[in-house]
Amino acid sequence: MPERAGPRVFFYGTLSDAEVRRALLGPRSDALVRVPALLPGFRRVRARSANYPMLVRSAGGRVDGEAATGFDKAMLAAIAFYEGPLYEPCPVRVALPGGRQGEAWIFLARSRVLAGTGNWDEARWRQRDKARLIRDARRWKAELDLRGWVPHEVPWRVRRRIEEMFG
Hints:
By secondary structure, the protein is α+β, with helices and mostly antiparallel strands.
């Protein structure tokens, strides 16, 4: 399937899950074009004091995930809201199918202090935390759909980055 125009976002954790994406982004998430991708120079760890993954830079590290295209600005603002004020979009290079390389965006923690010391356990997350996250994401989406976006909910530096994603 050909990629769509617009920014490419690398998913490596909870947003790799179709149910979570749909809860947060609605049915438009079904139209995203996703392909397997590899992010070099990072590793996926469990966040400190929470059961979700985050990325930390790591020489020789690599993270399997997927690269998705087909976003509009509202979808990226929803992802920024979901990630929270301690994360911001950063451009990276990813390996794509067929040996291609391409630019993608990741939401990276502004401080490594948020990182735990162990790896994220996706099976444990699915068993213990996924259902609650889906409920929360549906509630956030319903609230935001009802009242619209309030600019201060997504930090200015993140809003600026989202604008950059669209050139």
